[in-house]
Amino acid sequence: MKPVRTPCIGICSTTSFGDTICRGCKRFNTEVIHWNTYTEEQKRAVQARINKLTTQIMEGRFRIVSQQKLEQVLQDLRVFYDPDLSPFFWLHQLLQKHLHRLHSLEEAGVALQFDYLDRDVRDVLVEINNDLHVLSEAHHERYFGAR
User: pTM (2 decimals)?
Assistant: First the structure.
């Protein structure tokens, strides 16, 4: 099995602002701090949690029309993506880091779901990040809060 890469996207709020949940990669602050000491199994567990939560939220707002186009845009913009993770996870990372560089979602092989067609993508992304943050905080509280 290949090594797990850090999910860091270079927007770290745990080290910059002291957040419990990173607003960039959605890891817990302890996961950011101790990432390099984790076993591959521990890293995979963190990655699986973030992938699952992100996919769950993204699927309700976006459709992947062409995975091939999405991968091409990721490659063109030099955004690392793990083929073992969901294309919705890749899309979230792309939008987080490079939304300003996209002329349209169509060029990335993506479309908004019907209920979101009248919304600005930036507003949808803010909503997604807020939802991810709430889910991550709930997960953190459930497993680490009551000690």
Answer: 0.89
